[in-house]
Amino acid sequence: MLRGAEIPPLGGEIAWSSSVAAYLDLPDPLRMLADNLWAVRFAAFDQTATDRATEAARKALEDVSIGTIYEVAHPVVRVHPETGERMLSLGRSVQNFVGLQRYPSQRLFELLQSYLTAPQNTLCWN
User: Fold this and answer.
1) Is 14-125 in CATH node 3.60.130.10?
2) What are the extents of the domains in the chain?
3) For 87-97, what is each residue's pLDDT tens digit?
């Protein structure tokens, strides 16, 4: 999903990560680990969604989302339903991995994320 958290008035640069290229870039042992790994994320109210919203829109969003935090687990590697391509699926809201404590999860997240942000797996558009 592409979400514009902050959009410049004119110009600017946007970067995309290829989650398929990142997955293929993983060394075999790390790829095998990722294939069996599940991420836990907590879905809560996203403050950046309301930074520039009108007061009425902000209130409507708060009424729906404040007070409930959802914990969701999903596979770290997703398979495209048509092409069968495997891809890394991470994101800022990942809190930990199923079966791992917080600190080892953070370290593993940073390692996997480094493949998503590696220059050879990203494209910048200006």
Assistant:
1) yes
2) 14-125
3) 999 988 899 99
